[in-house]
Design goal:
By secondary structure, the chain is of the alpha+beta class. It has helices spanning 10-20, 30-42, 57-66, 73-87, 100-106, 111-124, 184-201, 205-218, 223-235, 239-252, 257-269, 273-285, 291-303, 307-320, 325-338, 341-354, 359-369, and strands at 91-92, 108-109, 130-143, 146-159, 162-166, 179-182. The protein has a domain at 289-370: Serine Threonine Protein Phosphatase 5, Tetratricopeptide repeat (Alpha Horseshoe). Strands 5-4-3-6 form a four-stranded antiparallel β-sheet, sandwiched between helices. It has a two-stranded parallel ribbon with strand order 1-2. A hairpin with a 2-residue loop joins strand 3 and strand 4 (146-159). Helix 14 runs antiparallel to helix 15.
């Protein structure tokens, strides 16, 4: 009996496989992978969502012409940093958070903007940089009694088996202790959460909600984005929906004192004062490192007329973070209540030096000028 003949398509397939063995290895297209994941999670809505580290044709052409590095991993890393900081002369700019292409064209960006560009260029040049969340350095902001959450992201690269991190964070020591590598989807959620937080702090709640919702659809258990979604609802006077978002965030991060503080605020707004008091006591008993908790408690004490207790809380907040303008503004409120104008003006000056754009500080400045 004759052996069955193979399908005629097998020969071209084998030829293609044979030729493939002689061609250059094609690197994994991580940007295409992320876009595919967007489509799975968001369907048709994924079309307008950017991949933060993706490079465009202009950048790739420039790299091909201008980027030169040896095969050694450390040489490549050094060449990437040299390209970003010397050729592009990248400058630090707190706002806005930019993707890799925007950072390249603007020649400026913040920490996450730098990492987006570093990851994009590094991968284009055969390295494997990835995103790393620094869990012992978080960025918080506070507006209208609610705490807005952002993380701090650096880039990680294994060079000769050793993890090294790279970032762009001026004016702070780099004594990071706790690192958590994150995947590209979580990094994209951080990017959109950053944009949402920036919009929130600028007072554009509708824009903020849209951006933060993108972050929660990309990473449904991302606690920072869920917290900020709750803040958006609270600012829209939809406190019940805010509480639902906070509780979703707590499922992912049950001990997150930042979210718990916002929950306590929601309880108070809903008239659930006993639950709010119990929750605040629980947070304090667990020795929180969240300075905004102490600011919030100080303001509650101030509203109750207990200025000494309010001052004690502001001191505790100051011990957690000496560089927060909100802490200085807490002191301003307490010293105004005490009638000590000299100390109130001193702390207002400190707040304005830390953040000259802070709307609450500027309002106090206008008030005291009268």
């Amino acid at each position: 009996m004759k052996a069955a003949r193979r399908p005629r398509l097998a020969a071209p397939l084998l030829l293609a496989l044979g030729l493939g063995g002689c061609t250059q290895y094609a690197p994994f297209d991580s940007a295409a992978f992320v876009r595919g994941e967007y489509e799975k999670k968001m369907g048709a809505d994924a079309a307008g969502i950017v991949v933060p580290f993706e490079l465009d044709a202009e950048i790739r052409a420039t790299l091909k012409e201008k980027f030169h590095a040896g095969a050694d991993e450390q040489e490549k890393v050094d060449a990437v940093r040299d390209f970003i900081f010397n050729r592009l002369e990248l400058q630090y700019s707190l706002l806005p958070t930019r993707d890799a292409v925007e950072t390249y064209k603007a020649h400026e960006g913040n920490c996450l903007s730098f990492v987006n560009l570093f990851v994009g260029i590094g991968r284009a040049e055969g390295l494997n940089p990835f995103y790393v969340e620094v869990t012992d350095l978080q960025k918080w902001n506070r507006r209208a009694g609610l705490v807005v959450s952002q993380g701090h992201i650096v880039s990680g690269v294994y060079v000769k088996g050793k993890l090294t991190t790279y970032d762009f964070l001026p004016y702070r020591p780099k004594a990071y202790k706790n690192f958590k590598p994150i995947d590209d989807l979580t990094a994209a959620a951080h990017y959109y959460n950053n944009l949402g937080a920036e919009a929130l702090l600028a007072g554009d709640v509708a824009k903020a909600k849209g951006l933060v919702e993108i972050a929660t659809r990309i990473a449904p258990t991302f606690d920072k984005a869920l917290n900020n979604l709750g803040v958006c609802y609270a600012r829209m006077n939809q406190v019940d929906r805010a509480l639902e978002a906070y509780q979703q965030g707590l499922k992912a991060s049950p001990d997150n004192s930042l979210i718990l503080t916002n929950v306590a605020r929601a309880y108070q707004q809903l008239g659930r004062t006993k639950e709010a008091a119990e929750l605040l006591s629980k947070i304090e008993a667990e020795n929180t490192t969240n300075p905004y908790f102490f600011i919030y408690e100080g303001e509650v004490a101030l509203a109750q007329g207990d200025t000494q207790k309010a001052l004690d809380y502001m001191v505790r907040a100051f011990k957690q973070d000496t560089e927060l303008p909100e802490v200085q503004l807490g002191f301003v409120k307490v010293y105004l209540a005490l009638g000590d104008m000299i100390k109130a003006r001193h702390h207002l000056e400190r707040a304005l030096k830390l953040d000259a754009t802070n709307p609450e500080a500027r309002e106090f400045a206008r008030m005291l000028a009268k």
